[in-house]
Amino acid sequence: MSQEKDIIDRIASRVKTLRKAQKLTQLDLAVKSDIDPRQIQRIEAGKHDTGIRTLDKVARAFGMSLSDFFDFGK
């Protein structure tokens, strides 16, 4: 697996895990982060190479900083 695909998959898993931990639907997360619900779907499916601004919106919707979002050990 390429390094890029591995990172995309880790981000996808992180978003899905955090969303479920906060008992949010994909639509809830889309509304909280002001991101199109289809984009949330693609991010979680690992089919979207997400930009940093979008990830910052997602992190803020979870109530965390971008650096905390990337702390995959949490």
Detailed description of the structure:
- This protein has a single domain (3-63), classed as Orthogonal Bundle (434 Repressor (Amino-terminal Domain)).
- Helix content is 66%, strand content 0%.
- It contains five helices and no strands.
- The protein has helices at 3-21, 26-33, 37-44, 52-61, 66-69.
- α2 (26-33) crosses α3 (37-44) and α2 packs across α4.
- The longest helix is centred in the first third of the chain and has 19 residues, at 3-21.
- The radius of gyration is 11 Å and the shape is globular.
- The termini are far apart.
- The model has no long low-confidence stretch (mean pLDDT 94).
Structural class based on helices, strands and sheet pairing: mainly alpha
CATH superfamily: lambda repressor-like DNA-binding domains
- Largest pleated sheet: none
Determine the fraction of residues in helical runs and give it as a percent range: 55-70%
Global Rg: 11 Å
- Stretches with pLDDT under 50, minimum 5 residues: none
Number of strands: 0
| CATH topology grouping | 434 Repressor (Amino-terminal Domain)
Give the overall silhouette. globular
The CATH class is Mainly Alpha
Task: Tell me the fraction of residues in β-strands, as a range.
Answer: under 5%
- What letter string, H or E per element, gives the SSE order? HHHHH
Distance between the termini: 24 Å
Q: Write down the overall mean pLDDT.
A: 94
Number of separate structural domains: 1
CATH architecture: Orthogonal Bundle
